[in-house]
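Following up on my earlier message about zinc ion. Here are the inputs again, as you asked, copied directly from the submission form:
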Amino acid sequence: MLPLPAGCPLRVTNLPMSEACQRVKPPAPVRRWQTNLVPAVLLALSLLNVGWAWVGYRYGRHWYRFLFRSRPRGVVIHHTASDGWRDGKLLDAAAIDHDHAARDFGLKYHGRVYHIGYHYVILADGTVQPGRPEEAPGAHTTAHNDYLGICLVGNFSSAGNPDGRMQPARPTEKQLTALIALVRRLMDKYDFEVSDIYRHRDLDQTECPGDRFPFQQVIKELGVTGNRRSGVDSRG
Ligand SMILES: [Zn+2]
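Thanks, got it. Here's what our run produced:
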């Protein structure tokens, strides 16, 4: 008897040995992806479910906005360059909205007109008020209205408000505390870094938010306690 070719599974056959071995194919190995396919599909479906549950929780009946949303790129800080009070009342987002209406800053967004160009206003007493929705483009910094605009009420410029006639002439402690908390929240929400936080004057020919605005202090604090990827920024 001729020796069987190596790997030939046959022992007895009426065919010539070499031909028989050619006809017998070894069983196809079960590929790993076939055995893993079912759990992989189940995992993908459950992840999809969790994803849609989050979209439903975050956007509610406006879930489709998730598909069209545009993400802001960072934050620009402003001051109103005005007194913090008007007619004995705190100057607030409604008053700024009224002022901006005269400057034709109007934007119609989901059925409502917003004149105010900022996304947030921080009043002299530290109250944070919403302006435009975060998803809407701003009207606060030329060519950078895809950034969120935050405006502190007051005039922090020693050139524009040398004698401090307009108060607050520098941001109050309550305004700074509110600003840092707000920016920190936005950094976490949109994954901004400290280098995504600007003053208006960093981007445009303006003094805004004035030389009395302690940008270094704000940036330093955000670098320590802000977004987990952030480092301390060196801008002055
Ligand atoms: Zn400004």
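One observation from looking it over: Confidence is low (pLDDT under 50) at residues 226-234. Hope that helps, and feel free to reply on this thread.
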